Amino acid sequence: MTVTPPARPARDAGLTDRPRRTRRTPALRALTREVSLSAAQFIYPVFVHEEAHEVPIATMPGVSRHSVEGAVRLAGEALALGVQSLVLFGIPGHKDAHGSQAYDEGGIIQVATRAIKDAHPGMTVIADTCLCEYTDHGHCGPLCEVGGEVTVDNDAALELLARTAVSQARAGADIVAPSAMMDGQVAAIRSALDEAGYGHVPVMSYAVKYASGYYGPFRDAAGSTPSFGDRGSYQMDPAGGYREALREARLDAEQGADYLMVKPGLPYLDVIRVVRDAFDLPLVAYNVSGEYAMVKAAVQAGMLDERRTVLETMIAFRRAGADAIMTYHALDAARWLREDMKTT
């Protein structure tokens, strides 16, 4: 193949500054990258149910509901890939108006946590602390009537969320992660943990959580679709703007949150940046089920290169300011990063 030497440019100011010089080879590009990405920054969401077999989730290709034994095996696989953290979402065999299986010592999250920690002490187990998967109505706490409308009883929910967090900590959870968006939930949980002797257990707060359309596949997976209405009265309005996001994050930080989270991730990269700039607490981005499902659907249709798209998305979260990323892509992304290390 004949290669023609590049033409000599005119020596004007517009051509003396050449950013392409530092991007010419993979090694040159790696030399000055500002954003790092590693498997240790991923948190892998795992759905656990009381059945003895795995149940694939149709709306989330590659994701399943796992038995406790399956979750233990998956934790081992994650650790082998360098993914050191997972978050457990439980699907109970019984639901009631108060979500009692969420704080039952024999609840599915508690059983799975003990099993994973026994088998893999080095795995960081994060327990999702909420009630929506456990209530028969699908809302994040017991119900009451306000102004003629049925809604979640905020303060009654606080007591149950606190009981849930203590039960999860007692089972061995390394972190509890309240996601109900109840006013005062972090303070209630922090106080309960301290009083029960679990002052060492941190709280990862879903501080900035929007009433989003991107949660559909998760609700299929967890069986948590509300039986009436929606969660717009307690989750945040997508058009609420930065002030509301900063207010929610500030309240949780003041109440004792050890980590803050923004959920969903991709539609709110700007919010991640604003929260990052305003707070010095560790920040988590949740790359939610709908974001995952969209990529999978586009890949199956031949529209996207999965590896490039997923890793680019993870880099976007890091560039926006996230310290950690909760993502269903975690194991695949960890494999790809390992492959990249072997080829460099």
How much is the radius of gyration in Å? 22 Å
CATH class: Alpha Beta
Give average pLDDT, whole number.
Answer: 94
Give the ordered list of helices and strands. Answer: HHEEEHEHEEEHEHEHHEHEHHEH
CATH 4th-level superfamily: Aldolase class I
> What share of residues is helical?
25-40%
Fold and architecture overview:
- The protein has 344 residues and is α/β, with parallel strands linked by helices.
- The protein has a single domain, classed as TIM Barrel.
- The protein is 40% helix and 17% strand.
- The protein has helices spanning 13-16, 26-31, 68-80, 108-119, 154-171, 185-195, 216-222, 242-255, 269-278, 289-300, 306-320, 330-343, and strands spanning 42-49, 55-56, 64-66, 85-91, 124-129, 143-146, 149-152, 175-178, 204-209, 259-263, 283-287, 324-327.
- Strands 1, 2, 3, 4, 5, 8, 9, 10, 11 and 12 form a ten-stranded mixed sheet that branches.
- Helix 8 (242-255) packs across helix 9.
- The longest helix has 18 residues, at 154-171.
- The radius of gyration is 22 Å and the shape is globular.
- The model has no long low-confidence stretch (mean pLDDT 94).
